[in-house]
Amino acid sequence: MRVCHSVLKDPLRGGQCLCATAAAQGALSQARVLGGSIGLSMATIVLNNKLSQQLRGVLDPAKLKALEQSLNTIGSLSPANQARVGQVYTDSFNEQMRICTYLSIFTLLAALATYERNPANVALMKKRQQAMADGSVEDASAKGMMMNSADAILPPPRPDLPTPLHSEELGRRSLDGHMEKSG
Length: 183
Prior knowledge:
Blueprint: E1 9-10, E2 16-17, H1 19-54, H2 61-69, H3 79-113, H4 122-133, H5 137-142, E3 172-173, E4 179-180
Antiparallel strand pairs: 1-2, 3-4
Helix pairs in contact: 1-3
């Protein structure tokens, strides 16, 4: 039986330990922060590239550098240049949304690639893990809770069928299915 030394216990589930839940929520939060950081850096790169490409001949380098640092610089520009900068910001935003659309399509395809027609039974897997944690793997096998390598649920053993051979047994199956005695 697993012992929880944490103060994170769920009172609605009989004091069940929430360590794994807390770790999963922390990992999810970290992934969201990482995704936001990547998205923000992508947006900044696209904006700065658009500004430098489209306004290189229009604004002097000092004003262009100031504009890359802060949008407040736009107030010191002429109305024609303000309209031009607004158009560059619009083009940049459109490019950012196009990149986000491509990434969304990619993640949708990746999610569809993980689809399983017969997904693993989570409740059965939890019982199996608990049985293994308690040291009763044989008990789990007898109840039909063992999983094969493809995560398909194996049925419980049937008494009317022969049991599989184990390495401890002195015998091996020949190609035609008969037992051969070793030694």
